[in-house]
Here is the input.
Amino acid sequence: MPASAPTLLDPGLILRQRFAAAALRAFPGVDLPDPIITLSQSPKFGDYQCNSAMPYSKLLSKPPRQVAEALVAAVDIADIAEPLTPASIAGPGFINITLSHTAVASLLAQLDTPDLGLPIDPDAPVTVVDLCGVNLAKQMHIGHLRSTVIGDTLARVLERTIGPAKVKRQNHVGDWGLPIAMVTARLIDLENAQQIDLAKLTLDDLDAIYKQAKQQCQADEEGLQTARAWGMGPKIEAELEAANAEPLAHLARAKSTLVALQSGDPDVRRVWKRIFDTTMAACLATCARLNASISQAHTAGESSYENKLAPLVARLEQSGVAELGSGALIIKLDDMGIPEPCLIRKSDGGYLYATTDLAAIMHRTSSVATGGLGASRVVYCVDARQSLHFRQVFAAARKAGLVAPNISLEHAAFGTILGEDNKPFKSRSGDSVKLGDVIDEVVAAALSQLRARPRAQEMTEPEMAHIAQGVALAAIRYTDLSTERIKDYVFSIARMVSFEGQTGPYLLYALARVCSILRNAQGQGLLTDSPTAGPIAVAHPAEKALALVLLRYPQVVRDVDRTLEPSRLCALLYELAGAFARFFEACPVLKAEDDGTRNARLRLCQLTRRVLTDGLGLLGIPAIERM
Ligand code: ARG
Here is the structure.
């Protein structure tokens, strides 16, 4: 274990280590898998169970009870649990473990430090988080919600586990290539015809112009080919050709605009820059509404790799990794288990999405001394529908030796957001939905939810509007983060803003309750600021149950770092809110039977507030202390 390994606070993990040691002592020389330690389903089975006697018995060819007895005799848990006896073994060989109150209290005291049991890992690699990834001239649509919220959350978690200096957010903006050139060309035309004032350009204008430009360039190639293939006759062919002439002219112009853009033509660049600035201003404003820390400094668009592409492709061609296949340049990947080759240059000489991603990998993983970001881990928060793309790009990068073998490339893929009809979320007109509009809708729903509460009378309208923003943010982010990343989910506004069930507003409300108890205590002079005002103690089963959830916090945060799965943290915080509610129900705090009990319970409240605030903060959900 490296010297920097943090102290274990999660009793489940401590027990796993102790039982692993016991298995080694009891059955020396036998290679047994890690022990299985689970939380007990009912207090009559203690707090935790070791369920390994059964699987071990098969490997050892011994009766499971006998294995359980040997484990019980060998295990050393006297410092954290009540002594194990033959009566601790239930059924075929489940070992029931009851943690001692003093051990739980002492673990809690260790959790109650400024870093909440999460010291920064000094050996962790510099990590790039590829997030957001909007495209120029297009409104941020619902699909970018996930790349933004999941990406921002993973970055926040990593900033916590490995330190902010080692986390590099990268917004791989789609700001280059033919579609952007189409829009640029169209804008130049509109400007020349004095039909648009670029100084007043908005993203809505751009969105519309993008659609027009695309349509202008859309030739009915397929129709023409079908007509030819079926020999429909020269008349139809001529008609279709004539109809195609205009789009083809537009396309040719878009291509020449792209060349001008690439060669740095100042006028084309000026218009492109306008598109870029207009898009990014709107995008970053939407990110801010989602409380995602994404700024200009994180923007590394496809354009930033523009002049790296030709040398990269030349290198790949020279080394023989890339080869020509019907005019295009490809990297074959079947030897890496991927039948589809990675296309890096089209037959017309144009580069592709994958080419830019290869250049980006090199930039991200090359050393800081050579101008790179020096990352050894790159995490891509991108839609699961791009899985093949990333498998190809990662495999191509490895095959070409662009990255060292120790560098980890991970696609944190996510599923699709669905509408209430279970189909991909679309507007009534069938267009993709503007993210800003969706946020507005959630805020409105949160506001009407707040108005319906009995407490509504105590609040002013501006107060309520302010809280509604926070509730909406919690609703959106928690919903997006709480389902397993890879799964699709239904975007149900009514459900996400509800104060009941596994929702962001429920957690905010739970936190506000803890805060209100602590405020009352403060008001009564019962709370000193010193966190060591009274000893931490655990006596009542509901106190212990709360403590056992709190103690899992640091490990769950580290698990999110490892698995890139924020839903684990979401689930823990939900459990925490539930455990707190049961504690508060069963254990009076301000009216506790004696001062010692009250102080100990106040410490539990304080610790719950800290963990909830911290955990919500990692999810990008700011606490609302009063609501
Ligand atoms: N702009 C892309 C899209 O909208 C997402 C970019 C993801 N990141 C990357 N390195 N490819 O699909």
Observations:
- The first strand starts at residue 37 and ends at 39.
- The first helix runs from residue 11 to 26.
- The chain has 21 helices and 13 strands.
